[in-house]
């Protein structure tokens, strides 16, 4: 006779240690985790009544009406319902958390305004969720009693550049875009009028579009320790090929605080043109000295120094850009005791003069800048004849070489050493 398994007999017996009475239907004492996780698929699942389904749907509808902020703060619909009915039914039990402690209501403000508006611009400033920050974009600066004119620099342009120097940031320029565009347009129209003056003074400069002579306001900070994104001035340059190219150029810079600048020449040219200049100075130094001792050059750039070649050469080599880039020793191939060693050490050949704000702003600014540029024409022409000589310039140089003497002390005898008076 087959004996029944003891294990099955024990498992079928009712468990007396259970806290709850067994359900009316026969259910197994142990259920798998899969049956608990998915009760709808379990054959032992007791379907919920219609009242339970309606109650669960009402709770889910209340939870769906919560805002994103309330979900993040840890509140639910049942907690809010209990708090609203707390005054009506004080005996109602408090909802317990999973650890048995009463649930606390966290009240967080939806809007939190900083004590100072400047804190909003601080790096790393934090705003509470849901905060709406509205910033009005500044309007363009009022022109006052001085309207914009094509042949003048408006005072607002100087004001904008001064503000840019104090707030050299992309966010600031973005907010003051109207002022920037107005100032750039003012400088652009001024360049159109100034270009006519430059072409009139030097006929070798062609008529070029503004985009070929104006410099961008954005700085190249890739290899610079100074990471400020913008220049604090407007500038442009004229040459036979615009602001770029191998030819000597005229340069104009507009900057407030007496930092406006008018000058020109060759700044650190390549090895080949620099070799040509040194060879010309070695063979015929009197030509450069004759140009530098011109009365208008001495007045515009050397502070009216006396008509003396030695003093003029010293003033020329002491120009900021010339002195800062000059060699400390003599160049290769030349003796240190060369009579013109100061000129041979130069790696930049430029002239320049600063101008006050009063000289630039107003009706007289255009004529003043044009006057300084016109005084520089003999110098620019000399450099171009050496670095980029034309065919007729070579023929004229060869035919007149016998008339030149090495002992010329730079006195002006009416011949500008290849620089014609008609160009002035």
From TrEMBL:
InterPro entries tied to this protein: CHP02453
Basic and acidic residues: compositionally biased ranges: 68-78
Positions with biased composition (Gly residues) = 415-424
List compositional bias (Low complexity) regions by residue number.
7-16
Polar residues bias spans: 55-67
Stretches for region Disordered: 1-114, 390-424
Q: Where is the composition biased (Acidic residues)?
A: 79-91, 390-411
Q: Pfam families under this entry? A: DUF2461
The cross-references to NCBIfam families, in alphabetical order and at most eight, read: TIGR02453 family protein
- Indicate what this protein is called per its UniProt record: DUF2461 domain-containing protein
């Amino acid at each position: 006779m087959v004996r029944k398994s003891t294990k099955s007999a024990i498992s079928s017996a009712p468990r007396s240690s259970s806290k709850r009475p067994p359900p009316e239907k026969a259910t197994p004492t142990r259920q798998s985790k899969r049956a608990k996780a998915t009760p709808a698929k379990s054959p032992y699942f007791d379907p919920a009544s219609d009242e339970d389904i309606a109650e669960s749907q009402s709770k889910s509808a209340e939870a769906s009406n919560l805002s994103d902020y309330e979900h993040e703060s840890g509140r639910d619909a049942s907690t809010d319902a209990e708090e609203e009915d707390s005054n009506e039914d004080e005996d109602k039990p408090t909802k317990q958390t999973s650890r048995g402690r009463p649930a606390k209501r966290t009240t967080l403000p939806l809007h939190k305004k900083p004590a100072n508006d400047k804190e909003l611009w601080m790096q790393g400033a934090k705003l509470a969720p849901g905060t709406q920050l509205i910033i009005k974009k500044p309007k363009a600066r009022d022109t006052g009693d001085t309207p914009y004119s094509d042949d003048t620099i408006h005072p607002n342009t100087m004001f904008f550049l001064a503000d840019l120097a104090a707030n050299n940031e992309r966010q600031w320029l973005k907010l003051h875009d109207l002022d920037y565009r107005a100032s750039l347009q003012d400088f652009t129209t001024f360049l159109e009028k100034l270009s006519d003056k430059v072409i009139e003074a030097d006929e070798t400069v062609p008529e070029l579009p503004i985009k070929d002579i104006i410099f961008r306001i954005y700085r190249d900070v890739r290899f610079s320790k100074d990471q400020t994104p913008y220049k604090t001035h407007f500038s442009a340059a004229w040459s036979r090929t615009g602001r770029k190219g191998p030819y000597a150029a005229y340069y104009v810079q507009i900057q407030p605080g007496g930092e406006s600048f008018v000058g020109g020449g060759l700044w650190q040219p390549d090895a080949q043109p620099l070799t040509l200049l040194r060879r010309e100075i070695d063979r015929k130094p009197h030509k450069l000295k004759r140009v530098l001792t011109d009365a208008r050059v001495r007045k515009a750039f050397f502070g009216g120094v006396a008509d003396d070649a030695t003093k003029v050469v010293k003033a020329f080599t002491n120009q900021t850009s010339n002195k800062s880039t000059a060699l400390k020793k003599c160049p290769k191939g030349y003796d240190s005791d060369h009579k013109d060693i100061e000129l041979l050490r130069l790696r930049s050949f430029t002239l320049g003069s600063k101008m006050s704000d009063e000289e630039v702003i107003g009706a007289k600014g255009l004529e003043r800048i044009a006057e300084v540029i016109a005084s520089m024409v003999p110098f620019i022409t000399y450099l171009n004849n050496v670095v980029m000589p034309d065919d007729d310039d070579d023929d004229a140089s060869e035919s007149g070489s016998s008339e030149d003497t090495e002992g010329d002390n730079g006195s002006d005898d009416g011949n500008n050493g290849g620089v014609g008076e008609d160009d002035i």
